[in-house]
Write a structure and sequence with these properties.
Strand content of chain B: 15-25%
CATH architecture of the largest domain in chain A: 2-Layer Sandwich
CATH topology of the largest domain in chain A: Alpha-Beta Plaits
CATH class of the largest domain in chain A: Alpha Beta
Oligomer: heterodimer
CATH class of the largest domain in chain B: Alpha Beta
Low-confidence stretches of chain B: none
Mean pLDDT of chain A: 95
Strand order of the largest sheet of chain B: 2-1-3-4-6-5
Number of helices of chain B: 21
Number of domains of chain A: 2
Structural class of chain B: alpha/beta
Strand content of chain A: 35-45%
Largest sheet of chain B: 6 strands, parallel
Shape of chain A: elongated
Number of helices of chain A: 4
Distance between the termini of chain B: 56 Å
CATH superfamily of the largest domain in chain A: ACT domain
Helix content of chain A: 25-40%
Structural class of chain A: alpha+beta
Shape of chain B: globular
Number of strands of chain A: 9
Distance between the termini of chain A: 21 Å
Largest interface: A-B, 18 and 18 residues
Chain lengths: ~160, ~550
């Protein structure tokens, strides 16, 4: 089972390490982790996607709440959230596949943000699922480098 | 005033009596400032034991134990002591010297990332970055260590910051930590549910753990149990919540516990776990505990509830507060008959114990008989500190605790804990008889602290069960590896009478059962520190 944790923490040195260490120490999975400041500079928001059985998912929330640098933990399912991931992918292209790549980008709403004679960098920002699908379509191309933010998420307004 | 002076002032504000530790250059400003204070210092012989002494002190005094050591190896040696305290939720504030903050991260002499190293077994840790943060950090550290689920807090204190000036010292009266507000009062609706279950129950059992001691709720639990005739079982950390011979006390649960107490858990239709973790050593198959019964789990730490077993009624809060609330409710039920039934079972355990564990055919000293007679002969409010290994299991099963305390390293199982813990306990309560029982393995891990006891005039009584082997490992290899004994011989151990002499202690040797009474009397009646060697067979199992 997948679960998203939105963890507000004190924006202090070492806090990321403490939270990540907790997952390591207690054998919890981290599928992805993204951190950034909030509107309050003293507070950061960590979005952690984890998976496990019900008891583990509940323990994750309780153990996070126990950490003294943690201000608040919100947890929700993917279906209850708006989630986005940003991926940059650099590929080698040639005359034969250039058009295909461009078409794929167009279909999936990805943008080519950098270009040289033999390589291009594509930016894909969408739901984690669509990012995954786009990445699958690029498997036939020679991939040079990939970087991903991990999932960013917040509960839907209607919740 | 420099930051080291400020730190000492903070300790004074917290009414700290003792600092246990070991200096080195990186903590010298702190130990210089403490000279001008009334706070007493105790120099240990190895840093790990500073934490064990502080732990024994904290458990008996109910206050937070304070430790101060130097950077690098000093701090690293302390790690086992910190982890031991964390596993048993003992409140400690551990101050470690650190290299110059401008050099941190460059691997200079005696630099260690101690806050990183202890992260998974401290409740919280600080690195002091600015001198003026000292009052707030110390106030928070003591608050965090001693409230909620208690535990060790580390303050890493770079030497240049210790020497920095604090222009105006003011110790915060109150704290407002937005991220730390432990629940004290139990949810009223949940309390009512517990009352309702009790009214409905036919066979309830209270299972008490170390949290009852930590919360200071021992008397409350005793009177609550007695008011309704509810039988009580305990975990290892919950020993001495009830006097061993209390008619409602059935025994310790778990693999190493008594049959009657485990039976009680099985037969019960309502189990109320109070301040215990439902951990592997006490509840073998936690998923079965909810079968055919209602489980109530009362703990100050919400993360413990549901971690190992899903309770029907979770109740988060301080045990003392919750039992005050429970005592105020009207409960008409009385379970004295059910308690009698269980006591009958427990009498059978006792008979078996006497027949199999205490009966000496060849005149040899049986360890169970020894711990029983020793504890019976102790003063009523005496403190019995068990080490780790077979001696711990015999002590748990055999010790007769009246109105005293039973201390041991339950969670971490740290060998050698008993000597430091006994010294700390004695310092906290000089008027109470304090006895440590250990094996010859554990003794040799920490007996350097006999010098500490001697130096500070702390009369400790230490009984060493001597079988020349690592008994619990040997027993395991006997059963599991069919007597393929590997690395368990303690040949080469010192002559304990000479150790006693070297440290200026009296010495008592016990080899024959018929001399037991007399030997125990000499051991307990001698003034000052006494070392007792109790020779037992390596074939004894626990």
């Amino acid at each position: 089972m997948k679960r998203i944790y939105s963890v507000l923490v004190e924006n202090r040195a070492g806090v990321l390490c403490k939270v990540a260490g907790l997952f390591w120490r207690r054998c919890f999975n981290i599928d992805s982790l993204a951190v950034g400041e909030t509107d309050d500079r003293d507070v950061s928001n960590m979005i952690i996607v984890s998976s496990g059985d019900m008891r583990t998912l509940e323990q994750i929330e309780k153990q996070l709440n126990k950490k003294i640098d943690v201000i608040k933990v919100k947890t929700f399912d993917e279906s209850e959230a708006v989630s986005r991931e940003l991926m940059l992918i650099k590929v080698k292209y040639n005359r034969n596949n250039r058009k295909d790549i461009m078409e794929n980008c167009e279909i999936m709403g990805a943008q080519i943000v950098d270009l040289s004679k033999s390589m291009m960098t594509i930016q894909m920002c969408d739901t984690p699922e669509r990012v995954r699908i786009f990445l699958e379509t690029m498997r036939t191309v020679s991939i040079v480098e990939i970087t991903r933010t991990g999932t960013l998420a917040m509960p839907k307004c209607a919740n | 005033m420099n930051a080291a002076d400020a730190a000492i002032k903070c300790l004074e504000k917290e009414q700290v009596e003792y600092v246990f530790g070991y200096p080195g250059v990186a903590i010298c400003p702190f130990f210089d400032s403490i000279l001008d204070s009334e706070i007493r210092t105790v120099l240990v012989r190895q840093e790990q034991n500073a934490a064990h002494i502080a732990s024994g002190y904290a458990r008996i005094s109910g206050k937070t134990g304070v430790v101060a050591v130097t950077s690098g190896p000093g701090a690293e040696n302390l790690i086992t002591g910190i982890a031991t305290a964390f596993a048993d939720s003992i409140p400690l504030v551990c101050i470690t010297g650190q290299v110059d903050s401008r050099l941190m991260g460059s691997d200079v002499f005696q630099e260690a990332d101690i806050s990183g190293a202890v992260e998974s077994f401290v409740k919280y840790s600080y690195i002091v970055r600015k001198a003026q943060d000292v009052p707030r950090i110390f106030k928070e550290a003591f608050h965090i260590a001693s409230t909620g689920r208690k535990g060790p807090v580390l303050i890493d204190f770079p030497i240049d910051i210790q020497n920095d000036t604090v222009s105006r010292f003011s110790y915060p009266e109150t704290l407002n930590m937005r991220t730390y507000k432990p629940t004290v009062k139990g949810n009223t609706a949940q309390v009512r549910k517990v009352v309702k279950e009790l009214q409905k129950a036919k066979r309830p059992v209270l299972c008490v753990g170390g949290g009852v001691h930590l919360s200071g709720a021992v008397q409350l639990i005793r009177s609550f149990a007695h008011e309704h005739g509810i039988p009580v079982v305990c975990t290892m950390m919950g020993l001495s919540v009830m006097p061993t011979d209390d008619p409602l006390f059935i025994g310790m649960v778990g693999n190493n516990g008594q049959d009657a107490s485990n039976q009680a858990m099985n037969l019960a239709d309502l189990v109320i776990v109070v301040g215990a973790r439902v951990a592997d050593r006490s509840i073998n198959r936690p998923n079965l505990i909810t079968e055919n019964k209602t489980l109530v789990h009362i703990d100050v730490d919400p993360a413990e509830i549901g971690k190992n077993a899903g309770p029907n009624i979770p109740l988060v809060g301080d045990i003392q507060s919750i039992f005050e609330d429970l005592s105020a409710e009207e409960i008409t039920a009385d379970f004295s008959e059910w308690a009698l039934e269980l006591k009958e079972l427990s009498r059978k355990d006792e008979e078996k114990l006497e027949a199999e564990g205490m009966n000496s055919a060849g005149g040899e000293v049986r360890p169970l008989a020894f711990v029983r007679r020793l504890s019976e002969a102790m003063e009523g409010d005496g403190i019995y500190v068990a080490d780790v290994g077979q001696n711990q299991l015999w002590s748990c099963r055999g010790a007769m605790i009246k109105d005293g305390r039973f201390l041991t390293s339950g969670g971490m199982g740290t060998m050698g804990y008993s000597i430091g813990a006994a010294i700390g306990a004695k310092l906290a309560a000089p008027g109470r008889q304090t006895v440590a029982v250990c094996g010859d393995g554990g003794f040799q891990m920490t007996f350097m602290e006999l010098a500490t006891a001697r130096q500070y005039g702390v009369p400790v009584k230490i009984a060493v069960l001597k079988n020349n082997v690592l008994g619990l490992v040997r027993q395991y290899q006997h059963f599991t590896y069919r007597d393929r004994f590997s690395v368990i011989s303690l040949d080469g151990s010192p002559d304990l009478s000479k150790i006693a002499e070297a440290y200026g202690m009296s010495f008592v040797r016990l080899e024959r059962e018929d001399r037991m009474e007399e030997a125990i009397k000499r051991f307990l009646d001698s003034d000052g520190s006494v070392l007792m060697e109790c020779v037992i067979s390596p074939d004894e199992t626990a």
